[in-house]
Write a structure and sequence with these properties.
Length: about 775
């Protein structure tokens, strides 16, 4: 008998409820695995119907069509003489389960239900499925008649069992079971299971790709044996991007791993494993052997099949490899780009329309589209027929073959600078230069005519004309004049998106891209139904500081030199009149009353560390003790939570974006909280005030110390991110800032002068300056009454 087995894990880009396409991709993966010499093939979680069916899992149709697809796959000659399992929902005794279904030569072997549901983050599995809780037990599942007619079987074992072939033994975990504190792979390994298989639907978050690989490797290290991990990849109809990374590990070492990001619909990852290496490794672990001698036995389903061959003496086992992980900048360049590609080709639209302001956010969205174009060109050059078919369909040009990213970008992306009398020449120039370097089809328009027309209607009805603050208007007038500009841009974006392909003699329309980052959404620093309202948003899950680092990376990687001036420019909405010398009157950080570095810190404490106002104050008063007094920290925390409470309602209409950041405020499914708050947080803020009263008398300012930078302060509490302070951080505003219930833009009066750094050693403004912290009682609702 042989001792070497060749196994395959599949990475599939499935689509919820696309049963025909999903079946084709499953069959393609089986064929590729078989052609490469594999005797066993596994795939991702719920690959038959797609992971993100959500409430469609309550429909009998979803179960029916999944069985129909299974029958087609099982009866296919492609699957002959090969052990195969697929993921699909199965209803057993009126309970829905998330299952692996294993078969060999047109005979079902086992239905193995998931034993631990995932309800963290974006997952809501317990809404649709129930965990199988009968450990080491099986029941007889009565097969649908259409299956029984073809297989001759009436029932199949359903439950917690393993499959024993002539030469080895194979058992299952499903996704969350690997993460679970009581992972089943330990019990299975002690019971003699040598190949442990995990089908997953794991999505990406920045800086998290290594976690899955570490878990897979560590599972095989601790328990011994081979661990086979298959994952989905792509956008299957939701806000997440499943990030591939299918892998095979043996005895603590990684043998093979699939790509994290790719346009490829099907990727098969193979490894040849020497079973005697598993046995030798396990025998050497004496404590494991003692535990195994008394371990409970699993029900074994016997399969009359040898996964190895008798003549495998010359077959080479797969050696270990060292797989480098992407940097966060590479993840931003690739993840949202792949998500955009899936959304575009499956939406039936002809490209994208992007209002391009020349700032960091819209420039990041445009650069990600350019990155997508580069991936398309690379895939076509590598011979990916599906990508070529899809791009020709999108462009309605059956003869087109993309050969450079800029040329493709010109066909797919329309950028538009929507200028006004408040726009500076610099932003207009930067937008035009970036469009030229990216290759986008670029236009420039003025919104002044539309703004004046709307103001004329208001004047005709009321006899009044609102004025900006610097022209003598009040805070409400100032905000209304900013909002009207923002919302006009949204309206214009949609009419141009619908008609620009008509202008260019092409059928179809364009998807409107948004460009609001995760920090501005958290703070509510956006106008409801402005250009943050779009069809999709590639950067909605990314922080401002990560976007800056991404543009630094893209400047050299994609040869976009204009990005340097975009990064250096102070962030500004340009909604208020310029100063007489043409300089900016308004910057984002002055308007918000906080820096982007602080916003990231607040976001992580609020979401990742589950801090309310009082807990956040307790954390930050220790972190910032060398820079701010307890009273100043309290003021900052209160200011953030007031702004957050006033603007939380905006999250109910947040444009769908690819999930990237673990402190995202997206309330669609990730961050479930009220959108109507008591904005003065009276009980919580009193708890802070009581603590300040205790701390203030004993607080000793460290005036002799050099004030640390934003990065220094943030790094003390960051676990995984590497934030650098913004070169152009604006001082915080102390003036009577107005934050409308409708608008996240606060108007700031003349800022107070900042204190110079001790000894003149550093003139860089700190994101945590002691000045401009007295903001309490100055946030107003839409009536102008302080909250």
């Amino acid at each position: 008998m042989g001792r070497k087995v060749t196994v395959a894990v599949s990475t599939l880009n499935q689509w919820a409820l696309d049963f025909e396409g999903n079946m084709a991709r499953i069959l393609q993966s089986i064929l590729e695995a078989k052609d490469m010499g594999a005797s066993y093939r596994t795939g991702p979680e719920l690959e038959v119907c797609g992971y993100s069916c959500e409430d469609h899992f309550r429909e009998p149709d979803t179960f029916l069509h999944s069985w129909e697809v299974l029958l087609e796959v099982m009866m296919s000659p492609i699957c002959e003489n090969m052990l195969v399992d697929v993921g699909m929902p199965v209803m057993h005794r009126n309970v829905a389960y998330n299952c692996r279904v294993a078969f060999f030569n047109r005979q079902l072997l086992l239905i193995r239900p998931k034993m631990a549901m995932c309800d963290d983050g974006n997952y809501r599995e317990s809404r649709w499925f129930t965990a199988w809780t009968k450990s080491l037990q099986t029941e007889e599942y009565v097969l649908p008649r259409m299956i029984a007619q073809h297989t001759g079987q009436q029932t199949v074992p359903f439950g917690d069992a393993v499959i024993a072939t002539r030469d080895t033994c194979l058992g299952y975990e499903i996704c969350e079971e690997l993460w679970n504190v009581r992972s089943k792979h330990i019990d299975m390994s002690l019971a003699g299971v040598e190949l442990i298989v995990n089908s997953s639907g794991s999505y990406m978050e920045l800086r998290k790709a290594h976690i899955t690989t570490d878990l897979v490797r560590n599972a095989s290290f601790k328990a011994g044996g081979a661990y086979l991990f298959s994952n989905l990849r792509g956008c299957d109809g939701q806000r997440v991007y499943f990030n591939g990374c299918s892998a095979i590990a043996l005895n603590g070492e990684l043998l093979a791993r699939g790509q994290q990001f790719a346009l490829q619909d099907v990727e098969v990852t193979l490894a040849t494993i020497d079973l005697e290496e598993i046995r030798a490794y396990r025998v050497s672990l004496r404590s494991r052997c003692t535990a195994a001698a008394g371990a409970a036995d699993y029900p074994r389903i016997h399969c009359d099949f040898e996964m190895s061959t008798h003549s495998d003496i010359f077959k080479t086992s797969t050696p270990p490899l060292n797989w480098p992980n992407h940097t966060p900048e590479e993840e931003i360049a690739l993840g949202p780009a792949c998500w955009l590609w899936d959304y575009l080709r499956r939406s039936g639209q002809g490209g994208f329309f992007l209002p391009l302001s020349g700032g960091v956010d819209s420039s990041s969205s445009a650069t990600i589209v350019h990155s997508m174009c580069r991936l398309i060109v690379q895939a076509v050059q590598l011979g990916d027929a599906q990508v070529l078919h899809d791009i020709r369909k999108i462009l309605a040009d059956t003869d087109y073959t993309p050969d450079n990213a800029a040329g493709l970008c010109n066909r797919l992306l329309v950028t538009c600078f929507m200028g006004s009398v408040n726009s500076s020449k610099e932003t207009r120039r930067r937008a035009a230069q970036l469009a030229n370097q990216l290759g986008s089809y670029h236009i420039e328009i003025s919104i002044d005519l539309a703004v004046n027309a709307l103001l004329g209607i208001f004047n005709a009805v009321t006899g009044l004309t609102p004025r900006f603050r610097m022209q003598g208007g009040c805070a409400r007038q100032n905000l209304a004049l900013q909002n009207i500009q923002s919302r006009i841009r949204m309206v214009l974006a949609y009419i141009f998106a619908q008609l620009m392909l008509w202008v260019r003699n092409r059928p179809g329309g364009l998807l409107v891209l948004g460009s609001a980052n995760v920090d501005e959404s958290l703070r509510g620093y956006l106008t409801k139904y402005d250009c943050s309202s779009a069809d999709i948003n590639p950067i909605g899950g990314i922080s401002k500081m990560d976007l800056r680092r991404f543009l630094i990376y893209a400047k050299d990687k994609f040869n976009l030199p204009v990005l340097e001036s975009i990064i250096e420019a102070p962030p500004t909405a340009e909604l208020e009149p310029l100063q007489e010398n043409g300089e900016l009157q308004q910057t984002d950080e002055q308007d918000m009353g906080m820096s982007y570095a602080e916003l990231s810190e607040y976001g992580r404490l609020r979401k990742q560390s589950f801090c309310g106002p009082y807990s956040m104050f307790c954390r930050l008063v220790a972190t910032w003790k060398g820079d701010l007094s307890p009273k100043e920290v309290a003021d900052k925390v209160k200011h953030f939570f007031r702004c957050y409470a006033i603007n939380r309602h905006k999250m109910t209409v947040l444009t769908p974006s690819v999930h990237m950041e673990s402190y995202s405020p997206d309330d669609n499914r990730f961050d479930h909280r009220p959108f109507l708050y008591r904005p003065n947080w009276s009980w919580q803020f009193k708890a802070i005030d009581d603590e300040v009263d205790k701390l203030q008398p004993i607080y000793t300012p460290s005036s002799a110390q050099l004030r640390p930078s934003s990065e220094d302060l943030l790094m003390s509490t960051q676990r995984s991110s590497h934030l650098d302070d913004s070169k152009h951080s604006s001082p915080l505003s102390s003036a009577s800032a107005s934050a409308s219930i409708d608008v996240g833009i606060s108007t700031a009066a003349v800022p107070l002068p900042g204190a110079a750094a001790p000894g003149g050693l550093s003139k860089k403004p700190s994101g945590y300056s002691k000045v401009h912290v007295n903001v309490l009682g100055k946030i107003k609702d839409r009536t102008g009454i302080p909250v």
